[in-house]
Write a structure and sequence with these properties.
single chain; alpha/beta; D-tyrosyl-trna(Tyr) Deacylase, Chain: A; 6-stranded mixed beta sheet
C-alpha cells in the first residue's frame, strides 16, 4: 500500500483506473491459502489505517483508493536468478479475492478505482512521503 497524491493505471494506452487527489494505491497479492475473510479484513485495515495527513485514514477523509492485483508480490527470489511464482495463487483463485477486497471497500463507502486483472498494466503514481507499507493479513493468527 502506498500513500499517493495521484495514481493511474493504463492498459494498451487506455486509462482503466485513476485517482486524482491524495489517497492510497493498494497492490494486492494473493497466495494459495488466502481466504475471503482475509480479503475483507485487508479491506477494513487499509480503509481505516491512519497514514494520511494529520493521522487520518482514507475512511476519515473519504480518500480515493486505487486497487491493483499484483501476483509478483509473492515472488520467491531465494534461489537462482529467476523468481518463482509458486506462492502466488492461480488466477481463478486470486481474481475473486481481489474483487472481494474491492467490493468490501465499496460497501464501506470508499471511492475505488481498479486496474484490470491479468492485464499488462502501466502504473503511474506520485508517492507521498514516501509512505509504503506491507500489510499481511492472516485471519488464522
Amino acid at each position: 500500500m502506498q500513500r499517493v497524491t495521484e495514481a493511474r493505471v493504463t492498459v494498451d494506452n487506455e486509462i482503466v483506473g485513476a485517482i486524482d487527489r491524495p489517497g492510497l494505491l493498494i497492490l494486492v497479492g494473493v497466495s494459495h491459502t488466502d481466504t475471503p475473510a482475509e480479503a475483507k479484513a485487508l479491506a477494513a485495515k487499509v480503509h481505516t489505517l491512519r497514514i494520511l495527513e494529520n493521522e487520518k485514514s482514507a475512511a476519515d477523509v473519504d480518500a480515493p483508493l486505487l486497487v491493483v492485483s499484483q501476483f509478483t508480490l509473492y515472488a520467491d527470489t531465494r534461489k537462482g536468478r529467476r523468481p518463482s511464482w509458486n506462492d502466488a495463487a492461480p488466477a481463478n483463485t486470486a481474481e475473486p479475492l481481489v474483487q472481494t477486497v474491492v467490493d468490501e471497500l465499496r460497501s464501506r463507502g470508499a471511492e475505488v478505482a481498479t486496474g484490470r486483472f491479468a492485464a499488462h498494466m502501466h502504473i503511474e503514481l506520485v508517492n507521498d512521503g514516501p509512505v509504503t507499507l506491507v500489510i499481511d493479513i492472516d485471519a488464522r493468527a
